[in-house]
Specification:
4-stranded mixed beta sheet, alpha+beta, flat, about 375 residues, 3 domains, about 40% strand
Length: about 375
């Protein structure tokens, strides 16, 4: 019997107090509302594979290849296509809000069929469309998979995923989204994590930095910024000046537990009330030993095999330990380490502390 030991990591995420050292830029906490990347997708064919493409069982690959050949004046029935140097792929890209016509964007190429590898392949001309089914450009180029796959004599060696690749600059933009900030009278920042206090701090920081009351926190997510008509440089300069303003975000006191990996993250602001803890670990070991009984020589008896079972029970405990009221996350970590328990035990202790009302923080189990 093999005992599988799991290594459990405890991570203490300590945020600094509310001062300049804990400040972040507005651009790192928010995004501009209405200016999102546009996802694009397309169906294409990768050719030039060294026998690692889709098998004839991939009907859609055969049909796509037959349709492509027909565009070049070659008529062939899809059910008679028998090639292994071609693979059907889905091509995806993300178009930034201000990408202009003529620019190039990286694309991802992912196999759809049973191709073993896209190594050495070339994506043929593939139009990419938006969710509104508008074509924004075409993708084409050599696929880079960042790995390899070698198979010979029943032995195979593979590094990284070989059925997914990338084409740097493989998408040529032919239509832009038409976004512009010229002449706008206002814009909004959207907080990545909704919080009333952080939104108000961003409002105050922007107004103090610009020297005018131009920012208003509308809700826990949106901060509206009015563009003064006489602002030097217009909206572009104002966005540049406001997104670099430093703000100290307010975070909730939170303990995050991942029971699958045994990870515990304790955030800043976590407090413990005075509490007494007694935690014990029960270990049970069961051992089966075969006992063989042989008959005498030349007798008519049979060999009997019986099993001897031994059960050992061991209980370890820390007794009752009193933890005084903690002032910061370091005190919490020190108090738990003094108990001498394992990370898995700490998960159980945190759950019990929350149930007892001694943990002054939100407990999140993921």
């Amino acid at each position: 019997m093999k005992n599988i030991l799991m290594t459990i990591a405890i991570l203490l995420l300590v945020a600094l107090p509310f001062d300049g050292s804990a400040q972040s830029r507005v651009k790192d906490l928010t995004t501009l509302e209405g200016l999102n990347d546009l996802p694009l997708v397309g169906y294409g064919i990768v050719v030039g594979l060294d026998g690692t493409g889709d098998s004839p069982r991939s009907i859609f690959t055969n049909q796509a290849l037959a349709n492509m050949l027909e565009r070049f004046g070659i008529s062939v029935e899809s059910n008679r296509v028998r090639v292994r140097n071609v693979a059907a792929v889905m091509v995806t890209a993300s178009l930034s809000p201000f990408t202009k016509v003529g620019q190039t964007v990286d694309v991802m190429v992912s196999s759809m069929g049973d191709a073993r590898s896209l190594q050495g392949g070339t994506l043929l001309l593939t139009p990419l469309i938006s969710p509104a089914e508008q074509v924004y450009g075409i993708a084409q180029g050599a696929v880079s998979i960042g790995g390899f796959s070698v198979e010979s004599g029943g032995v195979s060696v593979r590094q990284n995923a070989t059925s997914v690749g990338r084409i740097p600059g493989g998408f040529l933009v032919e239509v832009d989204q038409g976004n512009s900030i010229e002449g706008i009278e206002e814009f909004r920042y959207a907080l990545s994590d909704a919080d009333f206090t952080t939104a108000k701090r961003i409002e105050d920081a922007i107004n103090a930095s610009i020297g005018q009351q131009i920012a208003t926190a509308i809700d826990p997510v949106s901060i509206q910024v009015a563009v003064p008509t006489d602002y030097p440089g217009g909206p572009l300069a104002l966005i540049s000046d406001t997104e670099t303003v430093l703000v100290a975000p307010d975070v909730n006191a939170r303990v995050v537990i991942n029971e699958r990996t045994g990870t515990v993250i304790i955030g800043d602001g976590v407090r413990l009330s005075s509490v007494a803890i007694s935690h014990g670990a029960l270990s049970i070991s069961i051992t089966n030993t075969p006992v063989v009984s042989q008959p005498n020589a030349f007798s008519q008896g049979q060999t009997n095999v019986q099993r001897s079972t031994q059960v050992q029970v061991q209980e370890q405990g820390t007794g009752v330990v009193v933890i005084q009221q903690s002032a910061n996350v370091g005190d919490v970590a020190g108090a738990l380490n003094n108990l001498g328990v394992t990370p898995r035990d700490i998960i159980a202790i945190f759950q019990a502390l929350k149930k007892a009302g001694a943990l002054q923080a939100e407990l999140v189990i993921i």
